[in-house]
Write a structure and sequence with these properties.
Layout: H1 2-34, H2 42-61, H3 71-98
Helix pairs in contact: 1-2, 1-3, 2-3
């Protein structure tokens, strides 16, 4: 049973790192929206390709706010919630399994 605890702890670490990476991509996308980057720049394209599947569903559900895109803020709040609730719950469960 102790090995399951290590697995859950490693899984929590992976989820935490993935959520942190997605958080940085969403922040980069928000900063890029303030300037006019070259849409053919490979870095801009990668950021857009990673962030669009996250932001588009939020944009569909959030009402139009007169040119202000609230989807990055909502996405960051969801990511923060997942890091706080899901990752910490998994770490707590892993600690119980290892004891």
């Amino acid at each position: 049973m102790i090995y399951v605890g290590y697995f859950v702890q490693a899984l929590a670490g992976l989820i935490d790192m993935a959520l942190t990476l997605v958080m940085f991509v969403v922040i980069a996308r928000a900063v890029l929206s303030w300037v006019s980057p070259d849409p053919y720049n490979p870095i801009v394209r990668i950021i857009n390709q990673i962030s669009e599947p996250i932001l588009f569903p939020i944009r569909r559900r959030v009402p139009y706010m007169g040119g202000i895109d609230l989807s990055p803020i909502i996405a960051l709040m969801v990511i923060f919630f997942l890091q706080t609730f899901l990752v910490q719950s998994l770490q707590h469960w892993a600690a119980k399994l290892m004891s």
